[in-house]
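The step that takes the researchers longest sounds almost clerical: writing a folded protein down as plain text. The outcome of that step, for a single protein, is printed below.
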Amino acid sequence: MSAIARLLGDSPLRVLLKLIVVSFLVGLVMSAFGWTPWGIVAQLRDFVLGLWNMGFRAFDRFVSYFLLGAVVVFPVFILMRLMNHRRG
């Protein structure tokens, strides 16, 4: 078996024939669904951007909840420490 055949997994002519058949079938399915290569790339980009933005929205909500709670918790903590310091 030649080096090219080992690399491709079969003879180059058979691999080319398989790639042509699979490309035709994939193109047929993509055409039936109205998909384009650029449309797939755009959908993938939108998906990644959506995940990215969702992550930052979650971080923003976490910070908002933290600040909301800190407005109450920190002053109460300081008051409790001052009250305990005066007793001891």
